[in-house]
Design a protein that fits this description.
This protein is of the alpha/beta class and 342 residues long. The chain has ten helices and ten strands. β6 and β7 form a beta hairpin. The structure holds 5'-O-[(R)-(carboxyoxy)(hydroxy)phosphoryl]adenosine (KG4) and zinc ion (ZN).
């Protein structure tokens, strides 16, 4: 089966072609056009994002088909992200996908963006298939999911406030770093001393029990406030900046790693899959590998292109649903929110 994927949920216009069956799927092409314009505003401006998708969608899809050496007629199904995300941005992809599917007489399938992130890894590592524990950490989401099988998703934990990437971006702003700030924090934290600023690990207590509400959940707003106080209390921010960044990153990573380890151990999973933009953070990936080595579980982290928003993961998830005979009719709509798994 050959699937054309389209992703426009936030500030990346992306199209991709994947081909295969079952878990034997290869990526034939992937085009990602990132909207750099939002950097000027320090965050994604929804209307600008939607308009940029309108401008980019036709050439991006055409390029993905060209790179795959295919024409629209060779495609078996069109997969498109229809939730969650910026609704105006999603509508561009959904409307275009509908027009394309309708015009070419092809079926259409709507894909949940976060389900796409669960599949991203499997395009690079054949072993990164269920059963596994997944940690999805992006600018908009922080989800800890147990995945016994494709299509069977058990949300164990989530953030109570800021997403992990959002916390990176806000702390970067406090430290005077450019947007999006995650990679800048990672860069300067390498020069930081982890003993200079030690922040409390949010929602992480040794005596927590699996039935406790906060056993798997995370929260980053208190950590953000602690960073703000450290910045305000610093007599020399130039000197302290890398140390504060390091203290913040250490606290956030230890929390995510520990919660993921709890999930993997409790469900006896031998694989841990990371996804979302924050999974680009090498300190997180290394810490996760080190912690999981204790129980012998393997950690799979996607490359930058597949960790951040992309259409290959949407095409891959669409292929799974299409093989099960699922189709979305021309009534497919876009939704800002939708729980993973329906
Ligand atoms: O998945 P993504 O590209 O878009 C969303 O769906 O949100 O994630 C973007 C987020 C941003 O918050 C960005 O700061 C963060 O991922 N990010 C990082 C790193 N690279 C990107 N956070 C920490 N370390 C990084 N190296
Ligand atoms: Zn995403």
């Amino acid at each position: 089966m050959v699937v054309l994927g389209i992703e426009t949920s936030c500030d990346e216009t992306s199209a991709a072609v994947v081909e295969g069956r079952g878990d034997d799927v290869v990526q034939r092409s992937l085009v990602i056009l990132s909207q750099d314009v939002h950097r000027v505003f320090g965050g994604v401006v929804p209307e600008i994002a939607s308009r940029a998708h309108v401008t980019a969608i036709v050439p991006v899809v055409n390029q993905a088909l060209r790179d795959a050496g295919l024409s629209l007629g060779d495609i078996d199904i069109v997969a498109v992200t229809n939730a969650p995300g910026l609704v105006g941005a999603l509508l561009v992809g959904v409307s275009y996908a509908k027009g394309l599917a309708c015009g070419a007489g092809k079926p259409l399938i709507g894909v949940h963006h976060m389900e796409g992130h669960l599949f991203a890894q499997s395009l690079e590592h054949r072993e990164a298939v269920p059963p596994f524990t997944a940690l999805l950490v992006s600018g908009g989401h922080t989800l800890l999911v147990d995945v016994p099988a494709w299509g069977d998703y058990h949300i164990l934990g989530a953030t109570r406030d800021d997403a992990a990437g959002e916390a990176f971006d806000k702390v970067a702003k406090l430290l005077g770093l450019p947007y999006p700030g995650g990679r800048h924090i990672e860069r300067i934290a390498r020069e930081g001393d982890s003993n200079r600023f030690r922040f409390a690990r949010p929602m992480l207590r040794r005596n927590q029990q699996p039935d406790d509400e906060d056993y798997y959940d995370v929260s980053f707003s208190g950590l953000k406030t602690a960073v703000l106080l450290a910045v305000q209390g610093s007599a020399d921010l130039e000197r302290d900046r890398p140390h504060i960044a390091r203290g913040f990153q250490d606290a956030l990573i230890e929390t995510l790693v520990e919660k993921t380890a709890r999930a993997a151990e409790r469900h006896d999973r031998r694989r841990v899959v990371l996804g979302g933009g924050v999974a680009c953070n090498q300190a997180l990936v290394e810490a996760m590998k080190m912690r999981m080595a204790e129980s012998g579980a393997a950690v799979y982290a996607p490359s930058v292109r597949l960790a951040t928003d992309n259409a290959a993961m949407i095409a891959r998830a669409g292929l799974f649903h299409a093989e099960r005979g699922e189709r979305s009719g021309m009534g497919l709509n876009a939704f800002a929110r939708m729980p993973l798994g329906g």
